[in-house]
């Protein structure tokens, strides 16, 4: 009797409630599916992913996806999310002095809710932008089962926040059958900078055979700095290599199997990162070719980010169906300080640099997230079934607090010296608590309920149709307080915004044979809207210049429709593997910030539409048994479709028709590895990795007096070329290597900013200078 016939009989037994033994056939069905996928993966060297909520090798998944396991990330020396973005087509990592953001296929915005979903296992952890602070947390790249990057909207299975795509960090599950471990250490040196080093260990396996298992890991890393901070008045160095940072993380997961069909896995993930200073340097003081990165900010700019993530996963195998329940709590706290000395001086007086000996001002930001998340899924368990499906419900309640306090005790002095009048006569308000010119706190709650389903039906052998739908109810509540002389009388406001978005998905794919798949997908994504708290009295002039009498109280969700066609192919016995996709994404009613520069406030509006077109290409070629080369190429052409103004009387447009979205058109990652036997059975290898990003097609986000979108004095971000070299030996799980990162010492700036339109001071950030070192790892 064939396997398919047996599965049909077992399915019939279940549905008709006969006396068949559910636990026995449930285990065999699940094991057969897992073993089939594992067998395919082992034979092809592919990674098994769960992007569709069921386990499949990546070449069989009809969406555009890049996947990396820990071993492949170690080969390229990836230590953080920026390294993943660098080698993934269609992705861009955007950095400012206070936040980071991932753009996928040109879909990115620093306003409102997130456009990219960030997941640790089944927990979404992305943050909403409240005011000027915040930025996503990303887990450290150590002891991960894999990372999945899903390009295009994932609105059906992953919901809000996955408008442009989703990045999933999947942690290892405790293994009930065998012990395993992973050790890694590294020592590196940066030109004209401080050393970097790391150490990490992970261990897991059964505690009671087939009943209880564990996985535990711990990790520490310190990245040496290379930017020197000087005393502005004396020019003496205050802190050599000021921008050093350190991070440590730990995770513990336990798995309990009270029966052959039920597994209960509680886990906790903890991460703590600290940065001693900013990596931005002053352009006018630095000489990058001589490795002189100088920052004359009068004050230190430390930042601290810490989170806990306890979670519970329950997996109940019912034969033809599987019930999966997840519950988690994400508790994150961030604190960072930004030196505001030059910003305040230039904003209020037009003088770019401090004018008083010892002058100092600082802005202290704090952001907290307390996210409660629950999901329940029921899904088919037979990968060979004609109809495969998943249905589920999702609930989340995300509480967020953002606070900013700007302390400037020199404010009364330089206002008096510039204008010849006390600051109280000009601003009408005293310093808050004797030292704050601005005090703002915002609290919000994002609530979401959703039901979703997706099904794939095999019409004929090889040809399948997929349809999915998600219905959500979103509610955003916010309360805000702002006070201080620069914002006028105390402003207190609160509001609520609700919506019921629906996100469908349709797809058709044809598996010609085990080596060739083509697909077409149409899908929708969204992110929730919100409420704009009232702005301060001094903002009236800015509002009038835009033709507004008040800020718009509400902004609605924006959405994308994505149209994608792709193929995944193998040729020459699997020696050549290819994954390609072409897409068009239409993004409408985009949430964008409008800055009111003279008063420090901003509001968010639904402004404009964007059309993004492009393609992604991944190619891997085994040229010889000893030489493997691969290329990942992404092209994005994202442009606004019409001219958009922040108000009817705005003198400058937020964007004009044909303006490019802030993203480099081309991203290229090239990899090559040559191996050969050396020294009595050792495997020696030489590896080259090259990452290229073309110049940005749009101006850097910054300051515009009318709408606050772009600074015309800052050019587009230039192209970057990062070449790395690694050589080493492998033997029985041990890998010892020497490497050079940024071999060409590319120092082109990747971010540039100035305080405001009145300032002549520019700051920039570049990639880490040439760095060399050694890595040792052991996997068993």
TrEMBL record:
Keywords: Cell outer membrane, Ion transport, Iron, Iron transport, Membrane, Receptor, Signal, TonB box, Transmembrane, Transmembrane beta strand, Transport
4Fe-4S among keywords: no
Membrane topology, record value: Multi-pass membrane protein
Residue stretches making up the TonB-dependent receptor-like beta-barrel domain: 271-743
Species in which this protein is naturally found: Sphingopyxis fribergensis
Protein name: TonB-dependent receptor
Keyword Ion transport listed: yes
Localization terms from the record: Cell outer membrane
Highest taxon above the source species: Bacteria
Domain TonB-dependent receptor plug: from-to ranges: 59-166
InterPro entries in the record: Beta-barrel_TonB, Beta-barrel_TonB_sf, Plug_dom, TonB-dep_rcpt-like
Signal peptide location: 1-26
Family, per entry: Belongs to the TonB-dependent receptor family.
GO cellular component: cell outer membrane
Predominant location category: membrane
PANTHER family: FERRICHROME IRON RECEPTOR-RELATED, TONB-DEPENDENT OUTER MEMBRANE RECEPTOR
GO biological process: iron ion transport
């Amino acid at each position: 009797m064939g396997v398919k016939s047996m599965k049909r009989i077992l399915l019939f037994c279940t549905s008709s409630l006969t006396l068949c033994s559910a636990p026995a056939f449930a285990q065999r069905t699940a094991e057969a599916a897992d073993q089939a996928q594992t067998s395919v993966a082992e034979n092809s060297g592919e990674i098994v992913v769960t992007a569709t909520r069921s386990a499949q090798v990546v070449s069989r998944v009809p969406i555009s996806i890049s996947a990396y396991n820990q071993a492949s990330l170690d080969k390229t020396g990836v230590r953080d999310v920026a390294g993943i973005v660098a080698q993934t087509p269609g992705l861009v990592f955007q950095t400012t002095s206070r936040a980071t953001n991932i753009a996928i296929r040109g879909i990115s915005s620093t306003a409102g809710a997130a456009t990219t979903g960030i997941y640790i296992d089944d927990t979404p952890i992305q943050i909403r932008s409240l005011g000027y602070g915040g930025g996503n947390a990303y887990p450290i790249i150590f002891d991960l089962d894999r990372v999945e990057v899903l390009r295009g909207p994932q609105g059906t299975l992953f919901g809000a926040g996955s408008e442009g795509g989703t990045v999933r960090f999947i942690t290892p599950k405790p293994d009930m059958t065998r012990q395993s471990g992973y050790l890694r250490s590294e020592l590196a040196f940066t030109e004209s900078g401080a050393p970097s080093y790391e150490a990490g260990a992970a261990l897991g396996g059964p505690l009671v055979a087939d009943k209880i298992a564990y996985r535990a890991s711990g990790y520490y890393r310190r990245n040496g700095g290379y930017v020197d901070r000087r005393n502005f008045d004396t020019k003496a160095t205050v802190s050599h290599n000021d921008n050093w940072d350190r991070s440590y993380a730990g995770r513990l997961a336990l798995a309990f199997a009270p029966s052959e069909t039920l597994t209960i896995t509680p886990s906790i993930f903890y991460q703590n990162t600290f940065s001693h200073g900013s990596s931005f340097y002053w352009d006018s003081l630095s000489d990058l070719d001589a490795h002189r990165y100088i920052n004359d900010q009068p004050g230190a700019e430390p930042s601290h980010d810490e989170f806990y993530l306890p979670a519970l996963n329950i997996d109940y195998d019912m034969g033809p169906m599987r019930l999966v329940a997840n519950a988690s709590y994400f508790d994150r706290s961030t604190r960072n300080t930004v030196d505001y000395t030059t910003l305040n001086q230039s904003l209020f007086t037009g003088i770019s640099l401090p004018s008083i000996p010892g002058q100092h001002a600082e802005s202290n930001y704090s952001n907290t997230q307390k996210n409660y998340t629950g999901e329940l899924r029921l899904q088919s368990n037979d990968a060979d079934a004609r109809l495969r499906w998943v249905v589920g419900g999702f609930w989340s309640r995300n509480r967020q607090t953002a606070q900013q306090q700007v302390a400037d005790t020199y404010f009364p002095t330089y206002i008096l010296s510039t204008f010849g009048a006390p600051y109280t006569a000009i601003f009408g308000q005293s310093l808050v608590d004797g030292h704050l010119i601005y005090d703002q706190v915002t609290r919000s709650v994002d609530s979401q309920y959703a039901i979703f389903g997706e099904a794939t039906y095999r019409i004929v052998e090889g040809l399948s149709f997929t349809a999915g739908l998600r219905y959500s109810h979103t509610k955003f509540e916010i309360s805000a307080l702002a006070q201080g002389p620069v914002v006028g009388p105390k402003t207190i406001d609160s509001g609520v915004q609700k919506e019921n978005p629906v996100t469908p998905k349709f797809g058709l794919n044809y598996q010609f044979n085990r080596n060739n798949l083509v697909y077409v997908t149409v899908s929708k994504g969204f992110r929730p809207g919100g409420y704009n708290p009232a702005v301060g009295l001094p903002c009236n002039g800015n509002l009038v210049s835009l033709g507004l009498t008040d800020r718009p109280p509400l902004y609605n969700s924006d959405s994308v429709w994505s149209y994608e066609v792709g193929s995944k192919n193998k040729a020459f016995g699997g020696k050549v593997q290819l994954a390609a996709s072409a897409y068009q994404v239409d993004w409408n009613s985009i949430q964008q910030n409008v800055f009111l520069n003279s008063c420090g406030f901003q509001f968010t509006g639904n402004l404009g539409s964007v059309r993004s077109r492009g393609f992604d290409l991944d190619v891997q070629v085994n040229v010889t048994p000893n030489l493997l080369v691969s290329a990942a190429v992404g092209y994005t052409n994202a442009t606004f479709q019409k001219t958009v103004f922040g108000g009817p009387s705005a003198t400058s447009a937020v964007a004009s028709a044909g303006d490019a979205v802030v993203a480099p058109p081309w991203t290229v990652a090239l990899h090559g590895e040559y191996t050969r036997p050396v020294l009595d059975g050792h495997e020696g290898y030489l590896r080259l990795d090259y990452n290229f990003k073309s110049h940005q097609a749009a101006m850097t986000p910054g300051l515009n007096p009318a709408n606050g979108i772009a600074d015309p004095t800052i050019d587009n971000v230039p192209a970057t070329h990062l070449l790395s070299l690694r050589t080493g030996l492998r033997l029985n799980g041990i890998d010892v290597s020497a490497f050079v990162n940024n071999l060409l010492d590319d120092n082109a700036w990747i971010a540039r900013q100035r305080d405001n339109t009145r300032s002549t001071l520019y700051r920039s950030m570049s990639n880490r200078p040439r760095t060399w070192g050694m890595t040792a790892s052991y996997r068993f």
